[in-house]
Amino acid sequence: MKKSHAHLSECDPVWHQVTVEAQDAISEEPLMGGLIHSSVLHHKTLESALAYRTSMKLASNEMPEQILREICDWAYRCDPSIGIAARADIVAVYERDPACDRYILPLLFFKGFQAVQAYRIAHWLWGEGRSDMARFFQMRVSEVFGVDIHPAAKIGKGIMIDHAHSIVIGETAVVGDNVSMLHSVTLGGTGKEEEDRHPKIADGVLIGAGAKVLGNIKVGRCSRIAAGSVVLEEVPPCKTVAGVPARIVGEAGCDQPSVRMDQLLGVR
Question: CA angle at residue 206 from 184 to 173, to 5 degrees?
Answer without folding.
Answer: 65
